[in-house]
Amino acid sequence: MTESISILGCGWLGLPLAKTLISQGYSVLGSTTQSNKLTLLEQEGIQPFLMELSPEINESADQRFFQSDILVINIPPGRKRDNIEQFYPQQIAEIVKQKPTQKIIFVSSTSVYPNLNREVTEMDLPTDEAKLNSLRVSGRALIAAEELVRQYSAEATTVRFCGLMGPNRHPGKFLAGKILNSSGKSPVNFIHLEDCIAILLKIIQENHWGETFNACADHHPTKENFYRQAAQKIGQEPPEFSSEELPSFKSISGEKLKKQLEYEFKYSDPTDAL
Q: How many C-beta neighbours within 10 Å does residue 53 have?
């Protein structure tokens, strides 16, 4: 019997993930907040659903979406809300209220980690108030959301992606021409879209449930070198960094993922993906 997979959030990552899953024989249900995208999803072979979380789910939401064998929660915290630290966990709590499948992939971010000036593993989630307060509000919102999903299902797997790059997300555009107060000596943490999709597919196909993984390329060039090359690749003016020698940073380790999934990155050095 064909497994059904619901993807909550068919955007930059969710849509190509859905297309890959369909090519592998899965039945895919996909959600969007925009009614004009329903036809696009249908054209790609995705069963489309209109889902809005404000933070309550829209009354017209079709409950069949939550009856799939696997649910991928792929909605990031919004950047424009003042109350995102409260609003985002409320959105996730609303999803849990629908009593979906126990097999869940929660797409999170390495913004849950503070700058510890060293390599960071899955064990470095902050617990004390000072470190929590050093995070951006989106990081704190994600920590709360992760815990809600974890409490709901022992089979939920959290994937903490680092900086995303790929089609329509070229790092050369991120800082082009900017004069920054931060050090260029900090390491970058990036992962390419192709690796994101391959990792999620492997988790599903091999049943890696109840886990937490960092997903980040092996190599961490300095910001100065990486962003200079990235800007030059697309003909943009490179950014300028401060001359600070002791930057505040974190270097994300993806070793747990590589070992448990026996995964080899397609782009182990993000510079190669430029």
A: 20
d(CA 53, CA 161): 23
Q: What is the pLDDT of residue 245?
A: 77
Q: Which domains does the chain have, with CATH numbers?
A: 76-166+190-218+251-266 (3.40.50.720)
Q: How crowded is residue 3: how many other Cβ atoms within 10 Å of its Cβ? A: 16
> Cα(72)–Cα(104) distance, rounded to whole angstroms?
6
Residues 77, 87: Cα–Cα separation, whole Å: 8
CA dihedral 29, 33, 35, 37 (to 10 degrees): -60
pLDDT tens column, 85-108:
999 999 999 999 999 999 999 999
Q: 2 by DSSP, 3-state: which?
A: coil
Q: Tens of pLDDT along 49-79?
A: 999 999 999 999 999 999 999 999 999 998 7
| Residue owning tokens 């797409």 | 107
Backbone angles phi, psi at 49, to 5 degrees: -135, 140
* Both tokens assigned to 109: 């971010």
